[in-house]
Amino acid sequence: MTRRAFLGIDCGTQSTKALLVDADSDAVLGVGRAWHELIEGEDGTREQQPDWWVTALVAATRAALSAAGDVEVAGIGVSGQQHGLVCLGVDERPVRSAKLWNDTTTAAECALLTTNLGGAERVLELTGNTFLAGYTAPKVLWLLLHEPVEYGSTVRMCLPHDYLNLWLTGAFVTEAGDASGTAYFDVRTREYSAPVLAAIDAQRDWASCLPRIVPSLSVVGGLRSEAAEALGINADTPVSGGGGDNMMAAIGVGAIVEGPVVVSLGTSGTGFAYRSRPAVDPRGEAAAFCDSTGAWLPLVCTLNCTVATDWIAALFGLDHAGVEAALVSSPAGARGLTFLPHLGGERTPDCPTGAGVFSGVRAEHAPIDFVRAVVEGVTFGLEYALGALRRAGVDATQVTLVGGGAQSDGWAQLCADVLEVSVARPSETEAAALGAARQARWAVDGISPAQEQDRAARRFEPRASPALRAAAERADHLREVAIGNGL
User: Fold this and answer.
1) Does position 164 have pLDDT exceeding 70, yes or no?
2) pLDDT tier at 482 (50, 70, 90 boundaries)?
3) Angle made by CA atoms 61, 63, 64, in degrees to the nearest 5
4) Beta-bridge partners for 20
5) Residues linked to residue 301 through DSSP beta bridges, in sequence order
6) Which end of the chain has a smaller Cβ tally under 10 Å, C or N?
7) Closest CA to 456 of 249, 254, 265, 299
8) Looking at 10, 178, 186, 245, which residue is catalytic?
9) Which of 178, 196, 202, 170 is nearest to 88 (CA)?
10) Which of these, 9, 99, 94, 93, lies nearest to 59 by C-alpha position?
11) pLDDT of 290 strictly over 70
12) Of 162, 370, 371, 402, which Cα lies nearest the Cα of 268?
């Protein structure tokens, strides 16, 4: 029997995931994944070719369809890594590789835009967000200043998920959730900020350059025949507005009403929560984003999450099981070894040129202690970031844990211990792709995804640990030194 299903696509930094979700039961019927390359440079460059995403989308979708068996795809939703700058020429082909969310080459442009607009407080008034190196606005100015030929050849600019929707449907549109991460978008009015765009380039016709903003929960178009043939899905299949990966993850875990803070352990570490009105951090460390349902999603982000844990695992030749064993074998506090995980610079705190630091290294430290120290350091960084959410009025009294790192029992328990709150882990931790499928269902069928009050497969309760609290204090000191010295 043919089952009716919705396809959720999540284009992340490391891979593109595809999930086929049953339209009635919400059960996952098929999963596919295809990996991406990454262009890296010592100057903080982090880029990808947009065509790599399309190739991965096709491969992941066909794998999910093969795994699901006999299904009819009733709708498609796309989740994409936020903040990436995709530049298109007159033929709608990419002019250059896309600068990604974790590209830290734009610190000077952040400072220049802030100064030209009258300071950080004025920028917050204009958009609800300050300029950080990962955001899209400073990337555009960077391109103008560093690659004027490519900038001049660019007629359209968009975000990664917008580019995939363009490939799928031919529609050049965006929605408020992902657009709010550009820093040239006013999260209060849900419109592009004319003063910010003028500060970047007063001569450019931004109305034709940027995608039109449509409701997140709308159908933006039907699947083009060429895309349909590539994917093996019927032409004209509806495609929803989609959104940024964090916005889609919020839908995937049911964060469409006020409730727990969602913490995602992915390439980046994020914390976010649904709010019915804008929530602005007066210091600008927490992002005042919109969500992809018509509300708001205040969010904090650390650049170094599984990037750091994967790095230390590769350094010692460990697989995921080896990392898990190290978390169990090394005691809380890693025997006095402390790690500041600013490997590729950092966003929260704003240290775009920062570097990682081990402190307290002694001859008796074994590889398991280094692994434990790295995972602890990443988690302490998330704890610091959640402090910015508190300034925006969001207190993490409960946490829902998602993302690839959330599959680790040891890390989930560490999050509960460090954050000192109960942590719930849903059965499906790839929440962004699931949320994209649900958003498509919402848009196509005109109904809301069921709000399940308790979807956790497992809960982790906090345990008191003086050694861990002492380690957190050491990490706080390292962070203060890094901030004070601009490291």
Assistant:
1) yes
2) confident
3) 65
4) 7, 30
5) 270
6) N
7) 254
8) 245
9) 170
10) 9
11) yes
12) 402
User: Using CA atoms, how far apart are residues 466 and 460, in angstroms rounded to an integer?
Assistant: 18
| 245/372 Cα distance (integer angstroms) | 28
Using the structure block, give the residue that is written with the tokens 């792709």: 433
What's the predicted TM-score (pTM) here?
Answer: 0.87
What is residue 457's predicted lDDT score, i.e. its pLDDT? Answer: 67
pLDDT for the residue numbered 486: 65
pLDDT tens sequence across 363-417: 999 999 999 999 999 999 999 999 999 998 998 889 999 988 999 999 999 999 9
Burial of 25 from C-beta contacts in 10 A (0-12 / 13-18 / 19+): exposed
Q: Which amino acid is at 191?
A: E
Which two tokens mark 391? Answer: 């300034």
Instruction: Label residue 162 left, alpha or beta by phi (over 0 means left) and psi (-120 to 50 means alpha).
Output: alpha
Of the pLDDT bands very low, low, confident and very high (cuts 50, 70, 90), residue 173 is very high
* Annotated catalytic residue 10: no
Q: Six-digit token pair at 317? A: 């030749």
- Rounded distance between C-alpha atoms, residue 180 and residue 448, angstroms: 23
Residue 118: helix, strand or coil by DSSP?
A: coil
CB atoms near residue 331 (< 10 Å):
14
* Architecture, CATH, for domain 3-253: 2-Layer Sandwich (3.30)
CB atoms within 10 A of CB 459: 14
